[in-house]
Automatic annotation (TrEMBL):
UniProt xrefs under Pfam families: MazE_antitoxin (PF04014)
The protein's name in its UniProt record: AbrB/MazE/SpoVT family DNA-binding domain-containing protein
Keyword field contains DNA-binding: yes
UniProt xrefs under PROSITE patterns: SPOVT_ABRB
Length: 86
């Protein structure tokens, strides 16, 4: 188990074994995700949204409305236990 100490400026140093495990290097980005349980997870942020373009495209599937997309996103977030991003 790795432990980090919060400084007076709100900063922490991610322990080396965790940096190595996540493949983090100087300049890497991480996200903090709060789950419904109140647990917070640090997740390595990779790539950009543009990298996902066309990933889910299915030419045989009709286009969804904005309302259907929003509903699917809400259901997916509820199912995963995510409360929001910080």
């Amino acid at each position: 188990m790795s432990i980090a100490t919060l400084t007076s400026k709100g900063q922490i140093t991610i322990p080396k074994e965790i940096r190595d495990e996540l493949g983090l290097v100087a300049g890497s980005k991480v996200m903090f995700v709060t789950l419904l349980s109140g647990e917070v997870r640090m997740v390595r942020r990779t790539g950009s949204i543009e990298d996902l373009a066309g990933l889910l495209h299915d030419p045989n599937r009709p286009a969804m409305t904005i309302e259907e997309i929003n509903e699917a996103i809400a259901e997916g977030g509820a199912a995963s236990g995510m409360r929001g991003l910080r």
